[in-house]
Structures
1.
Amino acid sequence: MDDVVGERVAALCGELSRWPELATMIRDAGALPQLSELLALLANRSEPDERHVTALIDVIEDACARQGLPALTRRVPSLPPGTGADTRGIAGWTCPLGRCSRVVLQDETPHPPTCAAARGEDGRMKSYSPGLR
């Protein structure tokens, strides 16, 4: 997926992982079928069609905007300078499926965060340590 689509997936996944009740809000907004399909596509081992992913995200975002949740899948994709990650240990976590550019820094949470799309697996995001690529 291109960077823009990956960023939108990352933002939505991050919000769903932080706020599990968001899925209920999406259902109430009428976009639960699209969310379910999106998460299934992302969890699949094969690369999803980028245009289809974008269309699903657009429907979810539009439905949420009508419920007062605008820009649900938009975020500023920059990390603040001097995040202070310990280079000897885990700096943070990334998408375990390799489907988005979501990064959660160790400063944000001491425990591995979850991925909304990878819940069928272990669900935890993949740890990242600088220098151990």
2.
Amino acid sequence: MQHHRTPIRSMFCSLPRTLAVLPLVLAASLAGAQQDPSAFPLDSVGYLNEELPRMEAAIAAKDRSFFSGAMARTVQFSERWGFKVKANPDLAAYPMCTSAVMDYVVVGMCRLTPSEECEPGLASRFDANVQRCREVAARK
């Protein structure tokens, strides 16, 4: 009898790799876009406002495939802004927004399938960062 990897087992095996690679992918792929940094919080909030309901629907539907597309969209968003502080120091004033966007996919995956690789407290930090980003965007 052969043992086949179940989708959940496969996801658990790939989750640590995905969690470890996400910051590297973002850091390696981010070109310093030339945009007005003061527009970043509002753009981040717009991105998250569009993505979060999709993520909630995917979690409710137990749709793991959603997260590969979400990862690609997150990388595209971050490329537009030269996301990492080193790549675009003008965004250093908005760490709550960069963190919220970077943590979005990981938080969603951990909510869908909690595992020991999921950092305790990440979801609450994510929620706080989203809220602070929204507050900063509202003042712009």
3.
Amino acid sequence: MANFIIGGWTQNIHYQVPPQFDVIMYGMVTNLTGLTTGTADAPGWSPTKVSAPRNSLATVMWTYGGGGAAPNNMPDSDQGIEQIVQCTKNHYWDGVDFDDESNMNIAMVIDTMQQLTPKQSSYTFSAGWDYNNPNSSTLGAATNQAVKNIAAANCTNRFILMCYGAQMWSMQDIEQNVRPAIERTLANGVARKHIILALTPAGLTDDNLDYFLNTVKHYDIGGLFIWEVDKLPEKALAYISASLTSTAPKSALPC
């Protein structure tokens, strides 16, 4: 996929992956003790029982964590690490995305990533105001330290910067946080091509999409990922693909 990779997440295990995708991540596995989607009381599918879907040439990963993941400080044991590693290998997943929205145990995340090798892994985190203001935010300070520790361990393939909330941020918040987050991640020791910028279809417009695409190319980072890509309009996906794989004129497409 030229200089940049395109990928994203879906919560639909039967999702047909678009041919433009290099990486697809299924999840979110938010019941971290039972390794299932859903909750401990209402579990969904599990990567311990479901083999990686193979309906494309994309790298196929499952996501450990995400919004609402519980409990905090996971994984919390060698047995937990072994379960993650073995289910990934036994069910033919290409790797694991660690979506840290639950104050994960970073030392054990690093151990897990190392044991997953040569399978792939990624570290996904919110890269907004907290991340950019670690001196004013306990969460931001912890996230910066996590990025530094994982980068120093040289054990993961990608750092995915979630630059959105329930929907795309306002343009003011985007301009104040997206590029500073990339610069901060570089300063934290992450290789340029290991940085991925992520957006969401909710609230996506021509202006904010162009800003993200231009930022990916300006910094020459790894690429762009999309949360809930199954909700992304086909025209927007075509525009993303054309923008990151060619020098075609940038005529904005409706989102």
